[in-house]
Task: inverse folding
């Protein structure tokens, strides 16, 4: 019994090292791997995943955890570590190996078919595999279990947002919908029309990268423990606390893509780089939830990156980098352009006001799917009618409608809601940060991003998974998740910007 | 019994996939990894090595091999595969786990101390760990065993050059020594003095890379199954047959470094890229020996890359890339400069004539060490006296003497001889290739490197480890390894170049 804790750590480190190696293989696949390396890479990655899963579900790990829970001498953080390790172990043993395997195999197929279906804009092609995935994930949800009086979908939410349930999220999402619709209506009435064409001038990728690196520097992203590369789909990967890499992409004719993409990923990366090093290789040195993760990227991308104070500082530097391109463009025009609000069809291109409605559509559809309330084949029609109702736009085809996102093809049901949670948390953190630093805008306007970074490091990052989400939220902001912060943020920012007001 | 073969393949693939993942981790460490990633990376790599070794020494693998050897239905290539898999298994089980571990731990320490010792040019610092490594490797040699009437050093040679023995190598090395000394003496008497200063002008690294990529293109190195990057120490890594990466480095003031370094690594890479894809993940799709590997890199670097025919083609292109730098330099001057022969102290900087003598010094010292004929402390004095005797130069200190190379610090005794074997094999292949293609120089002079590549693919690469070295050598060239080819090559090339002759 005395030896359980060190043995637990040894086992956790081994699982972590396998996952780190797998993460590097995946990073390399996106960033470096020559195309023909693909076949061999798939086998390598699958093997590492299997070895990690075997260890994660090893009964010996369960015995270790039992031993630890009988050990009266553990410190508070050791107890938290054991609690989180138990959580991961329970999940791993609850899902039968065959089911894991079948979901993984079906996902691989579904992904390939989704790519094809999206290209041909044919939901019918994708529907059979999507149905299969939904029913496999229902099995998984039943195997995992969910709270008394809850629904199977709760078990899926819990995989990305520990503890989240439909019962808790529903009112939050409804309120966010109302807040957002009110904002959109008011902004639509404004006579101020952003000129986004200034963002579509010619911005050389080399200079965009220079700009990105300049911002990374002000954000204090540690490049001796990270890298910036280019990839088709931008992402952040935490191979280890001291090896956290981000990627981005640049479009010559669309400045915001690379610019805010880089800031967004760096927001994720600052979280990963500041996880507690002393607990590296254990669940305590992992991010708390996907919602918390997204709160970091969105805070940096939108709350900071699209703020007037930040651009007061950065705009002269931007103009120096793009002297010819920016000719005749003033700070006010630029600030309005990067905060253009317009209901649109594609989630990843949506502005920060309309964005949440895309998520709410997904959330409502996912819930209905897993409550057996709707058949898969009805999804396109439902998607289109909800887009019309909430955003007032209707996709011309499934490719720009229900087929647009990759998540369902990889069985990632329950993931979308964390994007919205991230936005709400970000507003809540920011309101608290502003309370702690009433002169924050003056700091931002002189290029001081260190204040924000250190605050997030201290309040959120360094705790890893030590506290449950609701508790950490209370510790940071004094209350649990509250969508009103987001509403206040929108009113305070977009009201003056568009010369409108609403309540 | 019927199922042994597929099960063998499954096990071999798993070992291979683990090693591929480890190879990628090591590549990344040299090329991409941010400095702080070091600590975590060491753990990841060590874990993968352990997992691969466990599987390589698993008694279940031995049972599989036993089953296969009783299977009368195996094809010739399947039998060869079983033979080579048995060879790897036997090696893995013969060395006790504790010894593997101790050698690995001692090497890590020895490497760090060697770095320090070389910096301070103090052999005394390094001596104790070197002694320890020698005695551990003696244990290993005894555990591995060696042929009746042989010596323990044979067991070490065999790890890099399967089947090689001192008894066989001794006459080859002696003859090579005599051939080389005769060549050096004659060349020293020549009145033609190469002007190597033309190679020390300013060659921008960007253009050097362009030049390198141009040559890679003519060599038909497949960049869709490979990459070219920069690293401190150039190397080639075959992560998989379809993912073979090379690195190089450029010195602005020394053109040959990056130029011939790139060609050298590409020679290795062409071998790895043409191993039999159908047997990928098994020993059959591995290079036959380090000597064979080096024969590929040296053939491309020297026999092709430093030939007059090749530069007849490339020189105008080189001049176009470095118009100002190359002003006033003609093809003949350039050709003489890249073939300057001068006894020197540092192996990696040695020309192709004097190079083998550096190896012979190492070979003689290693043999003596493992025959207990000399104590470790006498190495510097012995090194210096042999350098004086064979090359006529004496190191001013141990850093440019016995401490110059990394190999001993990583317990790589028995590796050096494969460099010399590579040079001899390269000359033998080239003589055969010239017999098959009497117009080879005309082909090279019009940029046709495809002839050479295809010939090597067909004669050597595609066989992987199917045939033992002596048999493949006979299949390729009609006879076993014969140092006279190297002698003829030197006379045919350097005689006219320096206006001298010898026999």
Result:
């Amino acid at each position: 019994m005395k030896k359980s804790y060190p043995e637990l750590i040894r086992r956790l480190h081994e699982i972590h090292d396998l996952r780190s190696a797998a993460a590097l293989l995946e990073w390399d696949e996106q960033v470096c791997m020559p195309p023909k390396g693909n076949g061999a890479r798939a086998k390598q990655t699958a093997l590492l995943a299997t070895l990690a899963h075997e260890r994660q579900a090893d009964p010996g790990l369960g015995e270790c955890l039992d031993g630890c829970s009988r050990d009266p001498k553990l410190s508070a953080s050791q107890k938290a570590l054991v609690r989180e390790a138990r959580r991961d172990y329970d999940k791993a043993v609850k899902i039968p190996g065959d089911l894991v395997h079948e979901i993984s195999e079906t996902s691989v197929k579904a992904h390939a078919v989704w790519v094809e279906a999206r290209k041909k804009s044919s939901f019918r092609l994708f529907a059979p595999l999507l149905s299969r995935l939904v029913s496999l994930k229902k099995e998984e949800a039943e195997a995992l279990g969910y709270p008394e009086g809850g629904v199977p979908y709760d078990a899926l939410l819990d995989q990305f947002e520990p503890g989240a349930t439909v019962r808790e999220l529903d009112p939050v999402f409804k309120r966010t919908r109302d807040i957002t619709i009110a904002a959109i209506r008011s902004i639509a009435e404004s006579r101020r029309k952003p000129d986004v064409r200034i963002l579509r001038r010619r911005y050389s990728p080399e200079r965009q990268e220079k700009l990105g690196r300049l911002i990374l520097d002000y954000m204090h992203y540690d490049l001796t423990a990270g890298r910036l590369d280019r990839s088709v789909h931008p992402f952040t990967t935490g191979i280890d606390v001291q090896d956290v890499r981000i990627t981005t992409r640049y479009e010559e004719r669309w400045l915001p893509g690379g610019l805010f993409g880089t800031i967004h990923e760096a927001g994720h990366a600052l979280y990963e780089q500041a996880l507690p090093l002393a607990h590296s290789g254990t669940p305590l040195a992992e991010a708390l939830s996907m919602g918390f993760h997204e709160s970091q990227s969105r805070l940096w991308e939108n709350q900071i990156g699209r703020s007037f104070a930040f651009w007061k500082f950065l705009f002269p530097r931007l103009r120096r980098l793009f002297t010819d391109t920016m000719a005749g463009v003033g700070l006010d025009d630029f600030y309005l352009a990067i905060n253009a609000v317009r209901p649109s069809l594609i989630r990843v291109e949506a502005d920060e006001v309309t964005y949440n409605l895309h998520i709410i559509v997904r959330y409502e559809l996912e819930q209905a799917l897993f409550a057996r309330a709707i058949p898969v084949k009805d999804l396109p029609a439902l998607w289109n009618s909800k887009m019309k109702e909430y955003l007032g736009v209707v996709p011309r085809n499934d490719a720009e409608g229900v087929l647009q996102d990759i998540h369902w093809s990889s069985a990632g049901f329950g993931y979308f809601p964390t994007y919205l949670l991230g936005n709400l948390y970000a507003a809540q953190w920011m309101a608290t940060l502003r309370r702690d630093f009433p002169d924050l805008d003056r700091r931002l306007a002189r290029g001081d991003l260190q204040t924000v970074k250190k605050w997030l490091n201290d309040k959120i990052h360094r705790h890893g998974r030590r506290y449950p989400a609701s508790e950490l939220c209370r510790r940071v902001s004094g209350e649990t998740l509250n969508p009103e912060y987001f509403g206040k943020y929108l009113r305070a920012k977009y009201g003056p910007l568009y010369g409108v007001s609403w309540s």
